[in-house]
Amino acid sequence: DIKDVGHKYYLELELEDVLDKDSTVNCTAEVLYHLGNKNIAPDVQFTLEGELKSTEEADHVFYTRIRSLEKELVAENIPDSHGHVPPELEPLHLLAWVASGYLVWQNSTENTQLQLAQIKHVKQVRRSDEYLQFDYLVLLHEMVSQEIIPWEMTVLWHPRDGVRVTR
User: Fold this and answer.
1) How many domains are contained in the chain?
2) Which of 103, 108, 111, 153 is nearest to 133 (CA)?
3) Strand order across the beta sheet in which 162-165 lies
4) Does residue 16 carry a pLDDT above 90?
5) Which InterPro entries match (predicted)?
6) Same domain as 60, residue 25
7) Sign of CA dihedral 144, 149, 151, 155
8) Closest CA to 95 of 126, 129, 64, 122
9) Are residues 11 and 80 in the same domain?
10) Dihedral, CA atoms, 54, 96, 15, 19, nearest 10 degrees?
11) What single string gives the DSSP state of each residue in 48-82?
């Protein structure tokens, strides 16, 4: 407890690489939840001991494939009701997972536990610049209350610059 400021947590955890399940790195983090104002995202400071596998090649393949599509990509229900994600949609699923991490961070309190449950709908939006844009409707599962929360988000992505949630 930090008087008149909030609650700070010290964490030690192991991160598993989602692309290489045998690869892990240790992580230490400090998370500060501010008192009172629920509109302030927690402060997070972290240190990784090691590096995760580079996604540069996979990013380039996905970027090139999406840029070369004649029609905008549209997909629904990822994963499906059996938990299956088609291999060709896995990059969209990972992109939503990263972007929803931003939503989770911005909307977390000490009493919530949000996680991505499903992409209900995703639609690519053509742009005149180099970025890929996807409009997502995701379902977030609030583990404490068991509530399923629909959330719309617009995500911009470029392999050079990473992920940005713009709405």
Assistant:
1) 2
2) 153
3) 74-78, 114-125, 132-142, 147-158, 162-165
4) no
5) CYSTATIN_LXN, Cystatin_sf, Latexin
6) no
7) positive
8) 122
9) no
10) -40
11) EES-PPP-HHHHHHHHHHHHT-SS--EEEEES-TT
Confidence at 27, pLDDT banded by 50, 70, 90: very high
CA atoms within 13 A on the CB side of 37: 9
Place of tokens 């617009």: 154
Q: 11 burial class (0-12, 13-18, 19+ CB within 10 angstroms)? A: exposed
- Domain of 31, in residue numbers: 6-49
CA distance 152 to 69: 24
The identity of residue 151, as a single letter, is W
Over the stretch 88-137, which tens digit does the pLDDT of each residue have?
999 999 999 999 999 998 888 888 889 999 999 999 999 999 999 999 99
Shared-domain flag, residues 17 and 40: yes
Has residue 117 been placed in a domain?
yes
Helices (H), the chain: 56-67, 90-107
Position 43 in a domain: yes
CATH number of the domain bearing residue 25: 3.10.450.10
- What's the token pair of residue 120? 């209900």
